[in-house]
Amino acid sequence: MSRRSRPLMRASGALLIASTLVASSVTPASADPRPGHGGSERGRADYTLTVLHSNDGESKLLGAPADADYGGAARFTSLLHQLRDAERSPRAARRGEARRRGVVTVSSGDVFLAGPQFAASQQDGAPYYDALATGYADYDAISMGNHEFDLGPDTYAEFIAATPGDTPYLVSNMDVSAEPALAELKEKGRIAPSTVVRQRGERIGIVGAITPLLPSISSPRDAVVDPDVRGAVQDEVDALTARGIDKIIVVSHLQGIGEDKKLARELRDVDVMVAGGGHETQASAGTPLVPDDVVPNDPETGEPLEYPLWVADSTGTQVPIVTAGSDYKYVGRLVVNFDSNGKVTSVADRSAPVRVSGVGDDAVEPDPDVYSEVHEPVAAYVAGLAESTAATTDVGLDGRRDPGVRTGETNLGNLLADALLATGRANAAAYGVPEPRIALQNGGGIRNNSVIGPGRVSELDTYTIAPFPNQVVVVPELPRAQIKELLENGVSSMPAADGRFAQVAGMDFSYDVSRTAQQVDDDGNVLREGERVRDLVLHDGTVIVSDGEVVDGPPITVATIDFSARGGDQWPFRGADYTVVGANYQTALFDYLTKDLGGRVTAADYPEDGSGRITPLG
Question: Is-annotated flag, keyword Transport (predicted)?
Answer without folding.
Answer: no
